[in-house]
Task: structure prediction
Amino acid sequence: MSTRLQADSPLAKARRIVVKVGSALLVEGRSGRINRAWLESLVEDLLRLRRRGQQVILVSSGAIALGRRQLSLAKGPLRLEESQAAAAVGQIRLAHAYKELLESRQVTVAQVLLTLEDSERRRRYLNARATLETLLALGALPVINENDTVATAEIRYGDNDRLAARVAQMAGADCLILLSDVDGLYTADPNRDPRAQFIDEVRQITPEIEAMGGRSASGVGSGGMATKLLAARIAVAAGCRMCIAAGHPRHPVRRLEEGARCTWFLPGASPATARKQWIAGTLRPAGALTIDHGALRALLAGRSLLPAGVTGARGQFERGDTVSVLTPEGIEVARGIIAYSDSDAAKIIGRQSAQIPDILGFRGRDELIHRDDLVLLQSSPT
Ligand code: GLU
Result:
């Protein structure tokens, strides 16, 4: 096999990549120990991506599988409390392994444990997103898992496929790789049906494609194809391409770059476009800001909205809500995600950004709406 990177591989073009590894890859079935040689090869692959200037986030399972061995929990399904106890024991081991492997290669590793609520509740979502952004900006490699020890049955992801897709969405990643024990999607279960055909590209997740996923297998560490398709839906809607690929061979990511078989799910739009479409499509903006002519010119030139250019604010909104932006004449010219709540916005509008810490007592963003979070609506007035 050639070691050349295929220039047209979606992986080569990606700027920010989330890689998810499942428990069955990471933990040796018989001994219940970390599969070190394999993990080293994965880490080498991730560092290669980073050396090329691509940012990497790893979503790693394995805590429960590692912890259950340590606690000598019998084979078979675990009760919720048992799997939470196992996760508490296993997560330390997992983190330790990543720390050793990465820090010996001069890379700082950061552990982030998330719950479903962290990705569903707006404020927590924004905080988690800001943390990931900061870690990446500082050059750390975030290693993420679900916070299994506190997530109760009803509010649990339970599978890291969907968690990884949420992370990809949250981080604005443009590529998600699910390393798994299957090499991709087939028209039927290849173990049972000899006529099953491999699908290498999916541009739309139709009911027909859904049907190929079958039902999700239950139990830890086996999300099955159904959860992978759910993950694909989340990723693609966020403008992130996703692939399902075989993780068992050593150097699983490098193999992929070199053209190993896998299934790609391709979105219609980039993460930035998908986000802007989502902002523009908000059914009911939570409030509205009226701006002056100077701010309008800045917006039309593609700049952010600063508090100084805002003359009025109405509505009830929280940081992270979508609001309308109105011209002095009251015409809706843009929509965006606001960085302050209505009460804080009321205090800082018309003021210079440098005064924000004095007025509010904390240092928030300089912009009321950052240009990345702002979308101009159709034909804008001049
Ligand atoms: N969070 C679980 C663990 O680390 C794994 C969930 C999954 O395998 O998808 O053990």
Residues 22-23, 61-65, 87, 145-146, 148, 159-160, 220-221, 223 surround glutamic acid (CB under 6 Å).
